[in-house]
Amino acid sequence: MALAAALLGALLLSAAPAPGVPAASSFPIGDRIYPMLGQAGLDVRHYDLDLTVARPGTLELRGEVTLTLAATRPLAAVALDYLGPAVQEVRWNGAAQAFTLDRAAGKLRVVPPAPLRPSETARLSVRYAGLAVQTPDLSLLTGWQAVPGAGGVGGANYSLSEPVGTRGFMPVNDHPSDPATFTVRITVPAGYTAAASGLETGVVSGPAGHTFTFEQAVPIPAYALAIHINRFVRVDSAPVPVGVGGAAVVRRDYFPAGLPPRVAESVRAPYRRTGEMLEVLAGWFGPFPFAAHGSAIVESPVPALETATLNTMPVRSSSERVLVHETAHQWFGDRVVLADWSDVWLSEGFATYAELLWAQAQGQDGGEVAAGWYARLQGRPTRPLAATSAEELFDQTAYLRGALALHALRTEVGDVAFRGWLRSYVAVFSGQPASTAGLLALTRRELGVRAEATLRLWAESLTLPPLSAPPS
Ligand code: ARG
Ligand code: ZN
Question: What does the pLDDT read at residue 364?
């Protein structure tokens, strides 16, 4: 470390910064909720992640990740978000590279031999080993999860990283506005199964156990990367032709092998309807954005999470309502990504609205679902949809008022126009950071100023707007 610091110092001096502007300056993205996250101007294209978990159910891991980096402005330094295990080695385009680990800031900093220019890409590799570090977010510990096995036998691990947990087990540009593709290789002892976002491309056996490889070829935010290790039963189902251009979406679900038989049977029921959900949702949102979809079931009392192509679903949340919610997030959150955490209603409101769309497809009255949401919000404090603190990110306003905003718009413009608007939003903002302002502008273009005003009222009013559209 002393050597690394000395090298870093030498590089800083030799770069001869302009007065007041350190050559190694790197600025966070400027998120309104998490101002320290990410690096402005850094564009991670791909993460190639090798994880070895020798003792499932513990926080121990070994990792080596190679990031393919691009830049939208010259970068004299790269500052990744990282709070994880001790770093053993950093390489820049294959050559050993000095680094500093700033634990207080949660950053791994590297000053490359020459600034990264917008026309170039570079490969930054980081090797690390030790205990994953969890992040206290709101009421839970996010990041790498360890579920010890009953009686010390077996055990499971998975990632539950929304909003900022990924940095506890891998170096990352940890902001949803910089989605990337992933190759994930997970080595686990014999008897265990590993699963991750994307398509499984191979399983090989070696002295350390089995290595499972996955390709996530469509960019996703890092918090949405699924990683699961357990003694699993994998259930493959018929592919569903709702992908882009009618492509078949691969269907697989992972159930813990250790569930008691009666629990196992009741847990499986909602997952049998995943294919139907994909069909209903694709009918509203347009083609499913990824090559596969399914769920991995976890035996902890955590919230469900929309991990890409593989929802992370607790046993106790294994209902059709939660499953359709997480499945809708594949479009809203995983494919249409957030420009800023303050606009998380663009993920939660749309995913919640999918619950109503699914209920309607089952013959229920959508108006009653919306009225039920409205009743839950009435008489409680409300707020404009833009969150102003981490505590507000996953509150009733983001979920229910967000969903009601969409219902109000639909009530005003009708189903045909609403469907077209949903599809345009997905098409325009796939892989692009979405914001309330961007959605309002699209609404004006697609549906006109009156529809935009309705959505704006729901987004910005200090009080809860009336449920039915006011007469024109
Ligand atoms: N996005 C998850 C959902 O589908 C909720 C995650 C809550 N996260 C948290 N750190 N509390 O609703
Ligand atoms: Zn959600």
Answer: 98
Query: Is 259 a member of any domain?
Result: no
- Please give the pLDDT value at position 436: 98
List the strands of the sheet with 100-102, edge to edge.
78-81, 107-110, 100-102
Q: What is the pTM of this model?
A: 0.94
pLDDT of residue 368: 97
Q: Which residues surround ligand 2, an ion (CB under 5 A)?
A: 348, 351
User: Considering its fold, how many domains does the chain have in total?
Assistant: 2
Determine the Cα angle at 263 with ends 148 and 151, to 5°.
25
CB count in 10 Å sphere of residue 29: 22
Kindly give the distance from the C-alpha atom of residue 304 to the centroid of ligand 1, in angstroms, as a whole number. Answer: 7
* End-of-domain residue from the set 218, 245, 277: 218
Which residue's entry shows tokens 């265990």? 192
Domain contains 466: no
> At 75, which CATH number?
2.60.40.1730
Residue nearest atom 2 of ligand 1, based on CA coordinates: 305
Residue 256, preceding peptide bond in cis (omega within 30° of 0): no
Q: Which of 191, 218, 245 is the last residue of a domain?
A: 218
Instruction: Please tell me the distance from the alpha carbon of residue 200 to that of residue 205, in angstroms, as a whole number.
Output: 15
Over residues 35-74, the pLDDT tens digits come to 999 999 999 999 999 999 999 999 999 999 999 999 999 9
The set of protein residues with a Cβ atom below 6 angstroms from ligand 1 is 137-138, 140, 142, 162, 303-306, 325-326, 329, 348, 394
In a domain, 27, yes or no: yes
202 & 350 share domain: no
Q: Answer whether residue 316 is part of any domain.
A: no
Looking at the fold, whether 205 and 353 belong to one and the same domain comes out as no
pLDDT at 268: 97
DSSP conformational letter for 247: P
Query: In which domain, by residue range, is 87 found?
Result: 1-141+179-218
Residue to mutate (ligand 1; options 135, 162, 319, 331; most atoms within 8 A of CB): 162
Atom of ligand 1 nearest to the CA of 137: 10
Distance 162 CA to ligand 1 centre (A): 6
| Nearest residue to 38 via CA among 91, 126, 105, 124 | 105
CATH number at 386 reads 1.10.390.10
Give the per-residue pLDDT at 469.
Answer: 53
Give the number of the ligand closest to the Cα of residue 353.
2
Under-70 pLDDT residues of the chain? 1-25, 151, 469-472
